[in-house]
Amino acid sequence: MTRKSTKDTPVVDDESSSSDTDSDSTSSATTATSSGADTNNLTTAQVNDWVWTNMLKDDLKGNPDKFAQSDYLFMQNMNKKGTLDIDVRENHSTRRMQEAGASSDIDPRVASYEINAKGELMKQDILTGKYKVVSTQYGE
Length: 140
Prior knowledge:
By secondary structure, this protein is of the alpha+beta class. It is built from two helices and six strands; from the N terminus they run E-H-E-E-H-E-E-E.
């Protein structure tokens, strides 16, 4: 079941493991970064912020000031592999989205992310469906 993320509760635990191909591998070690954050034990808000930072660099690089983080829904779900999926959708009920002409009847998907067992942020390629590591440190 997916849920809208709003609370500062842990969403990834240190014992997550995965057998996925590409960049995933089984690991139970914590991943402390230069920011001091353990990427295998982030709060919901930290996960949202990390994904938002990547979106600003990648998806919104042409117009980063048009929308704010609150104009998006970050739906987090622990998957069967024990890693965290983050489905990002436009939140068409916000003032900025409605001023841009968004229909309040739908909230289209913008991107899909995953935090793998190594604590790396991965983004799904829209064409291939495969995930690629986009960040290895929280906040980058």
